[in-house]
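Whiteboard transcription, Tuesday session. T.W. wrote the structure tokens on the left side:
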């Protein structure tokens, strides 16, 4: 059995390592569709929004890839907001160069046209 002091020391080590790992991450969130520049270490976060049941996909062209996809559930006054679909895409560089990301939101109703949003940026 491990002593309480050893467990406390081990917990402190995990806390320090977790804090150090998170400190180096920078996330870039564009607020418009103008081209921009990022460093190779940066993460780009793009969001697709649609009505409930929408299919939301991201296509990446260039030296980057989607490494994390988050389904977002909003709350207002403590209760879930109904009627929307939100997906965040976190994109990480694989090398330097120009990247194009196309987010397509397809509503669930048959015959509705998808909403396509394009982002372009350069990884330096």
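and on the right, the sequence the group agreed on:
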């Amino acid at each position: 059995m491990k002593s309480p002091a050893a467990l406390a020391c081990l917990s402190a080590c995990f806390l320090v390592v977790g804090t150090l790992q998170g400190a180096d991450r920078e996330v870039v969130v564009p607020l418009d569709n103008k081209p921009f520049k990022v460093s190779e270490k940066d993460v780009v976060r793009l969001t697709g929004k649609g009505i409930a049941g929408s299919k939301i996909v991201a296509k990446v062209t260039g030296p980057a890839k989607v490494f994390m996809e988050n389904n977002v559930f909003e709350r207002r006054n403590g209760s879930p907001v109904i009627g929307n679909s939100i997906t965040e895409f976190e994109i990480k560089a694989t090398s330097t160069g120009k990247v194009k990301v196309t987010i397509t939101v397809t509503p669930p109703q048959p015959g509705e046209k998808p909403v396509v949003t394009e982002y372009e940026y350069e990884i330096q």
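Someone added at the bottom: Confidence is low (pLDDT under 50) at residues 6-19.
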